[in-house]
Specification:
With 121 residues, this protein is mainly α. It has seven helices and no strands. InterPro entries: DUF3597 (IPR022016).
């Protein structure tokens, strides 16, 4: 699993958790429900409800976002995440980190969440 997948799973929940919960709650003959897109409020609410979110600047800091979802925010991991986002020239500057955070938020939106514009742009 890539770093972005880990971030996405921390926000959306894992497919395994949803499959297990659905299997326990629904009869076996029922077709599985598709994952509903979450609203912008839910994205902020889900991230904001993670313990410690109020103490970190996750809205603009990729390092704090990674810390919040319990991913090592080391340079190596941020560089790997940048490559996943399509940036092969990542050098770890403040500008690179800001751009990386915005790319992650955009990709979260592309994955089905509605992320407020101020987190993407």
């Amino acid at each position: 699993m890539g770093i972005f997948s880990s971030i996405k799973s921390a926000i959306f929940g894992s497919d395994e958790e949803e499959t297990t919960a659905a299997a326990a709650a629904a009869p076996a003959a029922t077709a599985p429900k598709e994952r509903a897109a979450i609203s912008g409020v839910d994205v902020e609410q889900r991230i904001g409800s993670i313990p410690g979110a109020d103490k970190l600047n996750w809205r603009s800091s990729i390092v704090d976002l990674m810390k919040l979802v319990q991913i090592d925010p080391s340079y190596a991991n941020r560089k790997e995440l940048a490559v996943e986002m399509g940036n092969t020239d990542y050098s770890g500057t403040a500008e690179d980190n800001i751009a990386l955070h915005k790319a992650v938020m955009q990709k979260i939106a592309d994955a089905g969440g509605i992320v407020p514009d101020d987190l993407k742009n």
